[in-house]
Every structure is written in structure tokens, then in C-alpha cells.
Amino acid sequence: MDDLIRRKATGCADEFAKKMGISKSQLYEDLKEMKELGAPIDYCQVRKSYIYNTEAKLIFTFQTDFKEIKGGQNFFRSSSITGVIDFIFVNDFI
Q1: Interaxial angle between packed helices 24-36 and 13-20, expressed in degrees from 0 to 180 and rounded to the nearest 10
Q2: How far apart are CA 5 and CA 56, in angstroms?
Q3: Distance, first Cα to last Cα, the chain
């Protein structure tokens, strides 16, 4: 989703949902959640695509207490691992 938005290649909502393999209503829920996390998403009528109105990149990170990780196949079964989604705005680094 992030890649299509950054490339301005989503198309309209119907096309975007089809590219993602999800329903249109699920697409709207996902976009709403991304916006709540701080993603600067808009729809561009000229490009007919969802875009970031500020240069942005979606970064997915894991936060964990490494003392709790046993290693091997138990790594991803550990309840101490949680995924966190952060939006990094390119302009913040310039």
C-alpha cells in the first residue's frame, strides 16, 4: 500500500482495492487507520491516485524486550514482540 501511494500508482479507490486484493470498504478502513497514525494521505484528482501530500515513508519496526527472546523458532511466538508502525517524513531529515 505504501509503495503504491509513494509511486502515485494507486488509481481510484476501486482500482487501488483491486491492486491490494481487498474490498473497497477495507481499503477505506486501512486508509483511515494510516491517517490516524499520521500518514499525510490525500486523493489527487489530476493524477487519479492517492498520494502523500508530504514526502513520507512507512517504517515498520519491532519493539521487544530482548531478554525475553529464546531464539530459534520461538522468536516469533514470543508474546513480548509487538509490531509498531511509524511514518517517517523525509522533510524531517533535510
Answers
A1: 90
A2: 10
A3: 25
**In the block, residue with C-alpha cell 494521505:** 41
Q: Output the nine-digit C-alpha cell for 38.
A: 499520521
Distance CA(41)–CA(54), nearest Å, equals 8
Counting DSSP H helices and E strands in the chain, the numbers are 3, 4
In the chain, what are the domain boundaries? 2-93
Cut 0.70: pTM above it:
no
Taking the C-alpha atoms of residue 6 and residue 85, their distance in angstroms, rounded to an integer, is 16
The DSSP output letter for 40 is -
Strands (E) across the chain are located at 41-44, 49-52, 56-63, 82-89
pLDDT at residue 90 is higher than 80: no
Report pLDDT digits (tens) over 20-61: 999 999 999 999 988 887 889 999 999 999 999 988 777 766
Strand partners, 59: 86
